[in-house]
């Protein structure tokens, strides 16, 4: 994963890490708009912030693990920035300054909150289908992020929101998480990060080293697999999976899965590992116990995904049910993470119901 690039950041003769890329300082807004913003013109402020909004939103998601929390944090950060814009003198990068404000806002938001989790974090896998479980409302669940909301579709950007990476970030304390994302993902220097977080370069180097140690086992890189397969084959896999589920085709579904496949469904606490357990769940619940399904192919967290709609008799239509993110190994599905809930659909630009 991204963290594996740390080895290229260490300098044998220096205590300061040098990132692979560095944000440019030439991203200052038009001087007239900056002057107007500093004088209290909110329209001018909106114009200078708008080009950076999507990447700041993605940054807040990496920090917080939820698009809804990211939206709240970004709104709060932009309010803070607006109130302090008169103190931005333009000597450095507006981008760096806004990232500083956004990072501090996210750290404040994280204070006193529990980490975002997936069912695998709560306990062992279930061996057989559990049909009487209830959602865990006391858990702060990790959420999906639509690819359509990313600032770009580059390999590096998609890799920086992969589900395994976002989940691994949740294991890090706030300062380590911020340092890792700012350095490894966004390319800020240790000196810039120290200034953003109002600390020393030694402290940032220490935080990066501890973060690297914690994430050392997070070696999965979906972008390598997806690029090797190519878009057409990836789409065939996700379409075959969604079709098998919607048609109740157990054999077709099982043929797509690896032997060590996992399936989890936050906010339900139970999850399944291995072909036997996942097959038992699939046959007992979605294939035979739920009713009629419809689907739309989409992308989330830089990975293939399917949005599922379940028939609702009272509504007389198929209502939004889940966003299922697929993690592949070769051309088989290794992990299915089904984020249940209609609240996920608006950010993907998906309808609430389909016929």
TrEMBL record:
Binding partners and assembly: Interacts transiently with the RNA polymerase catalytic core formed by RpoA, RpoB, RpoC and RpoZ (2 alpha, 1 beta, 1 beta' and 1 omega subunit) to form the RNA polymerase holoenzyme that can initiate transcription.
Domain RNA polymerase sigma factor 70 region 4 type: 164-215
PANTHER family: ECF RNA POLYMERASE SIGMA FACTOR SIGG, RNA POLYMERASE ECF-TYPE SIGMA FACTO
GO annotation (BP), single: DNA-templated transcription initiation
Organism: Stackebrandtia endophytica
GO molecular function: DNA binding; sigma factor activity
Family designation: Belongs to the sigma-70 factor family. ECF subfamily.
Family annotation (InterPro entries): NTF2-like_dom_sf, RNA_pol_sigma-70-like, RNA_pol_sigma-70_dom, RNA_pol_sigma-G_actinobac, RNA_pol_sigma70_r2, RNA_pol_sigma70_r4_t2, RNA_pol_sigma_r2, RNA_pol_sigma_r3/r4-like
Sorted UniProt keywords: Sigma factor, Transcription, Transcription regulation
Residue ranges of every copy of the SnoaL-like domain listed in the record: 238-334
UniProt cross-references to Pfam families, sorted A to Z: Sigma70_r2, Sigma70_r4_2, SnoaL_2
Domain RNA polymerase sigma-70 region: 49-115
SUPFAM superfamilies cross-referenced by the UniProt entry: NTF2-like, Sigma2 domain of RNA polymerase sigma factors, Sigma3 and sigma4 domains of RNA polymerase sigma factors
Name this protein carries in UniProt: RNA polymerase ECF family sigma subunit
């Amino acid at each position: 994963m991204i963290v594996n690039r740390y080895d290229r950041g260490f300098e044998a003769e220096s205590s300061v890490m040098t990132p692979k890329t560095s944000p440019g300082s030439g991203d200052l807004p038009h001087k007239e708009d900056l002057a107007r913003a500093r004088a209290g013109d909110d329209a001018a402020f909106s114009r200078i912030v708008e080009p950076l909004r999507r990447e700041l939103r993605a940054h807040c998601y990496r920090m917080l693990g939820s698009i809804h929390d990211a939206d709240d944090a970004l709104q709060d950060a932009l309010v803070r920035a607006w109130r302090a814009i008169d103190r931005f003198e333009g000597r450095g990068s507006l981008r760096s300054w806004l990232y500083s404000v956004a990072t501090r806002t996210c750290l404040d938001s994280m204070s006193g909150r529990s980490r975002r989790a997936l069912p695998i974090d709560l306990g062992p896998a279930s061996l057989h289908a559990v049909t009487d479980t209830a959602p865990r409302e006391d858990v702060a669940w990790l959420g999906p992020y639509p690819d359509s909301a990313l600032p770009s579709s580059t390999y590096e950007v998609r890799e920086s929101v992969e589900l395994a990476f976002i989940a691994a970030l949740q294991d890090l304390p706030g300062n380590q998480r911020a340092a890792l994302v700012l350095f490894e993902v966004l390319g800020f220097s240790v000196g810039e990060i120290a200034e953003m977080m109002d600390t020393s370069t030694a402290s940032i180097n220490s935080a990066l080293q501890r973060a690297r140690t914690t994430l050392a086992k997070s070696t999965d890189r979906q972008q390598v697999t997806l690029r090797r397969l190519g878009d057409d084959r990836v789409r065939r896999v996700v379409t075959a999976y969604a079709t098998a589920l919607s048609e109740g085709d157990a054999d077709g579904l099982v043929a797509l899965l690896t032997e060590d496949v996992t399936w989890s469904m936050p906010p339900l606490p139970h999850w399944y590992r291995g072909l036997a357990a996942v097959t038992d769940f699939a046959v007992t619940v979605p294939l035979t116990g739920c009713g009629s399904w419809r689907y739309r192919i989409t992308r989330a967290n830089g990975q293939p995904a399917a949005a599922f709609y379940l028939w609702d008799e009272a509504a007389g239509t198929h209502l939004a049910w889940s966003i299922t993110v697929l993690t592949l190994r070769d051309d088989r599905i290794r992990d299915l993470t089904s984020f249940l809930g209609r609240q996920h659909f608006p950010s993907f630009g998906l309808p609430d119901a389909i016929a």
